[in-house]
């Protein structure tokens, strides 16, 4: 698509769809499905926010002919909030857009994002917010333990129980019942496999309760200096960055000469490094590249049209020891010709 950079004040506010959910719940997968449903005459933009520095999600969406704005290395609800304002200004300068889809990090607190959009009410209007739940991980215990999850669900217009292929009908029924009993009642609770929701959901607007009591204090703001490059001992590393907070993230970008061996990768994630909560990567595993996801103990590989470099991002409960991780990674990679 082409978007000119001249805009008149007559344009109505741009409809925003916010896609929230805990780490690895299936937000990017849902966006890929939504893009398949996009009417050809409509122009959308994507704003993808990742906690880690490396930027794994945006390249997986880049095959689509859309403007994609990335904010990496922090959450747009807190540490990267100024970047959210700056990116919204850039998006506002584009004309002919009909929708903006925002994926915040799986660690983010959406209230601040909603507030930022509300402050720009002349330019943006939050049409709907969808919270994606990993039904294989959802439980009353998780609900009781995670104030962030409670807030995500409370703030959402639509709750999507995703990954229902991984649970049995009795578990699904009890989760649906639990969500149906919430106060105030959710307008819509739907189910999905790999984000396969019915078309049209994101064109609907929903009435929101005027006041909501949030329970999470959000997460810490990033102190300056918390995110820093570190000296990698691995071959062909272009960049290696660590965020020493809690949660913590660590990531590497390698030249395309590095080949990652699938059996060794599987072995690594079979006994994952202690405290690992999420990993994702775009890696050269043969002639081709693959998107690799590790969520909740499950490792998956998916072919992807990416050739630029190999990049790996891991999120930990607290800062890991980079040297220990690099020892593990050294067993997995080989230097090869292109
Ligand atoms: N079995 C199953 N796996 C799913 C489903 N939806 C998504 N996944 C997988 O879950 C993993 C994480 O999906 P993503 O879409 O990257 O999740 P995310 O919420 O964007 O992750 P973050 O951005 O890291 O928070 C991927 O391996 C997906 O293929 C589903 O309905 N069933
Ligand atoms: Mg994602």
Q: What structural class do helix, strand and pairing data support?
A: alpha/beta
The number of helical elements comes to 9
Radius of gyration: 20 Å
Give the class-level CATH name of the largest domain. Answer: Alpha Beta
Helix-strand pattern: EHEHEHEHEHHEHEEEEEHEEEEHE
Portion of residues in beta strands equals 25-35%
Named once each, the bound ligands are: guanosine-5'-triphosphate, magnesium ion
**N- and C-termini, Cα separation:** 32 Å
Strand order of the largest sheet: 3-2-4-1-5-6-7
Give the beta-strand count. Answer: 16
Looking at CATH, the homologous superfamily of the largest domain is P-loop containing nucleotide triphosphate hydrolases
Give the rounded overall mean pLDDT: 90
Largest sheet: 7 strands, parallel
Describe the structure.
The structure is a single chain. This protein has helices at 27-37, 57-61, 81-92, 110-119, 140-145, 147-155, 169-180, 262-270, 322-330, and strands at residues 14-20, 44-50, 68-72, 99-103, 124-134, 158-162, 188-191, 227-229, 237-243, 248-254, 258-260, 276-284, 289-295, 298-304, 310-316, 333-335. The strands form 3 sheets. The chain has a 7-stranded parallel β-sheet, sandwiched between helices. It has a 7-stranded antiparallel β-sheet with strand order 8-9-10-15-12-13-14, covered by helices on one side. It folds into 2 domains: 14-203, Rossmann fold, CATH 3.40.50; 227-335, Hypothetical Protein Yjia, Chain: A,domain 2. The chain has 338 residues and is an alpha/beta fold. The protein is built from 9 helices and 16 strands. The structure holds guanosine-5'-triphosphate and magnesium ion (MG). Magnesium ion (MG) binds at residues 27-28, 57, 103.
């Amino acid at each position: 698509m082409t978007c000119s950079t001249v805009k008149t004040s007559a344009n109505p506010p741009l409809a925003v769809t916010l896609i929230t959910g805990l780490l690895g719940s299936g937000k990017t997968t849902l966006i890929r499905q939504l893009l398949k449903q996009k009417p050809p005459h409509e122009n959308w933009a994507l704003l993808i926010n990742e906690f880690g520095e490396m930027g794994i999600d945006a390249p997986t969406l880049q095959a689509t002919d859309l403007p994609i704005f990335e904010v990496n290395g922090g959450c747009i609800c807190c540490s990267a909030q100024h970047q959210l304002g700056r990116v919204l200004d850039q998006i506002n300068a584009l004309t002919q857009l009909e929708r903006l889809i925002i994926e915040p990090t799986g660690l983010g607190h959406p209230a601040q994002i909603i507030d930022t959009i509300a402050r720009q009410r002349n330019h943006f209007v939050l049409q709907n917010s969808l919270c994606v739940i990993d039904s294989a991980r959802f439980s009353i215990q998780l609900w009781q333990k995670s104030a962030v999850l409670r807030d995500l669900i409370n703030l959402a217009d639509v709750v999507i129980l995703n990954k229902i292929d991984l649970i049995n009908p009795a578990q699904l029924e009890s989760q649906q019942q639990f969500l149906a009993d919430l106060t105030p009642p959710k307008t819509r609770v739907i189910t999905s496999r790999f984000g396969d929701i019915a078309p049209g959901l994101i064109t609907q607007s929903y009435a929101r309760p005027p006041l909501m009591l949030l329970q999470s204090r959000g997460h810490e703001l990033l102190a300056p200096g918390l995110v820093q490059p570190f000296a990698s001992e691995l071959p062909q590393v272009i960049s290696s960055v660590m965020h020493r907070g809690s949660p913590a993230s660590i990531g590497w970008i390698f030249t395309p000469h590095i080949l990652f061996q699938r059996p060794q990768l599987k072995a690594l994630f079979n006994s994952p490094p202690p405290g690992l909560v999420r990993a994702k990567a775009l890696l050269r595993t043969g002639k081709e590249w693959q998107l690799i996801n590790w969520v909740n103990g499950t490792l998956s590989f998916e072919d992807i049209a990416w050739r630029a470099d190999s990049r790996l991002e891991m999120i930990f409960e607290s800062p890991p020891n980079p040297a220990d991780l690099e020892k593990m990674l050294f067993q997995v990679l080989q230097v090869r010709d292109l």
